[in-house]
Amino acid sequence: MDDQEAMREALRAARLGVEADPNPRVGCLIVPDDGTAPVLGWHQGAGTPHAEADALSRAGRRARGATAYVTLEPCAHHGRTGPCAGQLVAAGVRRVVYAVPDPNPQAAGGAAYLRAHGVEVLEGVLRLEAEEVNASWLHLQQTGRPWVVAKTACSLDGRVAAADGSSRWVTGAAARADAHRLRARSGAIVVGSGTVVADDPHLTVRGPDGTLADRQPLRVVVGHRPPAAGARILDDAASTLHLPTHDPVAVLAALTARGVHRVLVEGGPTVTTAFLRAGLVDEVVAYVAPVLLGAGPLAVSDLGITTITDAVRLTPTDVTVLSPDVRITSRPERT
């Protein structure tokens, strides 16, 4: 296989990792020079071997003289595990091809280390594809804050609930199942204290049969009013954090300190609007049901916009029918 084919295999392995993990998803393919089958490895989460170490352990002696394809520049620092660049050199790998330079200054320098030890290095193969695999993690490294997804589930006329406050269920089963997959991709789920009082949400990731997923995002309640004793969000199904603030910047700072790089804002409208007004929403996922309510709270409240030229415009990136509903994914246009 050529370099691009091999990197695609490494990317396939990277996607096996957990997107919500504090660490990036990384895959590694080792192609021995003796004609034997390539060996895949990937990072399975914080505290587990990095992708390169995983692949090297599977390859054994066949790594000597081989080419290693890695989706992210091999690290050159000591964390919970030793530097991957040093392990590649020690294993006798002849050539390293990687997709994305590591933007983390604490981990960068692997390519220079490899070259200094006589390893041939090629950078940038399938870089755009590899950046998409770790879009939220890279966003945190580049901006200092997590990638924020605002999720709404509303009627065709933009209502998240009826006039009496009832909201179960605006959308159908397929959309709700898809929303659980969206939760599973997130390191934290943010809601306002008003939503906790009104809806008593559980905010967990569950399967179609209602069973809890093994890995749960951090549940975050924003607002000065703490959840009442007995609220479902306080059970032991997942960790819960109460942040007594209405400032989205402070919320993201607290989550950044906890290693969260992908945040799902589930509402209600007050919290969603606060993040939008602050310009801190990177993606909007709207589940729109073919239902008309005519009254009731809107998905987004006052954004301070008085003229059409100031409208928050978004660029659709995906439209999917989840019968009977439609999921629209879009990203705000940055000026």
Structural overview:
This protein has 335 residues and is an alpha/beta fold. The protein is built from 10 helices and 13 strands. It has helices at 3-14, 51-59, 84-90, 110-116, 127-133, 135-143, 173-184, 193-199, 248-256, 269-277; strands spanning 27-31, 39-42, 67-72, 95-100, 120-123, 147-155, 188-192, 218-222, 240-243, 262-267, 283-289, 314-322, 325-332. The strands form 2 sheets. The protein has an 8-stranded mixed sheet with strand order 9-8-7-10-6-11-13-12, sandwiched between helices. A hairpin with a 7-residue loop joins strand 1 (27-31) and strand 2. Helix 3 runs parallel beside helix 4 (110-116). The protein is elongated and about 70 Å long. The mean pLDDT is 93.
Structural class based on helices, strands and sheet pairing: alpha/beta
Rounded to the nearest angstrom, the radius of gyration is 22 Å
Overall strand count: 13
The pLDDT mean sits at 93
Strand content: 15-25%
Largest sheet: 8 strands, mixed
**SSE pattern, N- to C-terminal:** HEEHEHEHEHHEHEHEEHEHEEE
**How far apart, in Å, are the first and last alpha carbons?**
42 Å
Overall, the morphology is: elongated
Q: Which residues sit in consecutive blocks of at least 5 with pLDDT less than 50? A: none
**Helix percent band:** 25-40%
Number of helices: 10
Strand order of the largest sheet: 9-8-7-10-6-11-13-12
